[in-house]
Request: fold
Amino acid sequence: MNYGIVSQEQLEQIDRILTDKLIKLGVDCVIVIDMAGNIITAKDNGRNKYDVYSFAALAAGNFATVDAMAKLVGEEEFSLLFHKGQESSIHFSKIDEELLLISMFGQEISLGFLRLNVVDAIEKIKKLWPKSA
Amino acid sequence: MSFINLKEKVVQVKIVYYGPGRCGKTTNLEYINRTYRNQIVSEMVSLKTHGDRTLFFDFLPFNMGKIKGYDIKIQLYTVPGQVKYNATRKLVLRGVDGIVFVADAMAKQREKNIRSLNQLHENLLSYKESIFRIPLVMQYNKIDLKEHGIPILPTEVLQKDLNSRLNAPYFEASAVTGYNVAATLKKIIASTIISIQKKLF
Ligand SMILES: Nc1nc2c(ncn2[C@@H]2O[C@H](COP(=O)(O)OP(=O)(O)OP(=O)(O)O)[C@@H](O)[C@H]2O)c(=O)[nH]1
Ligand SMILES: [Mg+2]
Reply:
């Protein structure tokens, strides 16, 4: 239940991590959502505007679907969830049982480079997050 | 469950329209989408089959304005009602704050309503939620069909079948004409916000 309320300070710290680790590297947009489809926070580079609320609802559904499929074939989870497009791509990463980090990025960034930074950002975020009961 | 952003003072509330196949869940959201344009910031998202049946969910974000300085964002969802889609129905229920159970008042749908409500009960249990505790509103939909000579279940029968133990607020409605669609929505929003406030303060 703890994640339901986040202090202003925690949110600011998360925003700072996302900006430093991802937006500054050229990621277009980063969203942290919970598995119910709520937005915890969203950061973008100021150029690309997305409808983040619809995006969060679809992303939570997409992640949950793939997760359920993994279980059906006997996998704990599929660790990489990545959709590649011509101009932009989307990368999903689980922060913990309740939270997802989603990055939208263009061709200038390689998937490998993005993943390294996502992992780093997630480790930092986990340290601030109150351990859920 | 609702998410409260203390920094931006935003509360996100998830309300799910649940009920058997073709009972009118999507039609409820379509009516709201048409009628409250100024409170809706983005397009309604519908993941559906070619035959217009909901495949995964419909999603409609609805702005309530401010309560105690907090911006209330209501996220309306529908589940797919077809029997075979229970796995996806369950996914949509994750983190739900309030439920509208849409029953189909057509006499031939009597059994389906009951089965759907029982499954809702089980699905909520799988999230350790209880149908007796979660804010819930009953909507007996399609009552306009009475005028067309189509056999309709009397409200007393629907109440006895579905609501005798739950004792939830209920409305006769018609999602196509819009009759009591807004009343249903207002009621579930009010109950849900009261329940969230209780948890918080
Ligand atoms: N007469 C009448 N028809 C209705 C009413 N509400 C919905 N319908 C019709 O019933 C059919 C099914 O409506 P939907 O809103 O798609 O039903 P649903 O519950 O979303 O169905 P699924 O997505 O399969 O679960 C459509 O043809 C609607 O026009 C109503 O109040 N009165
Ligand atoms: Mg539908």
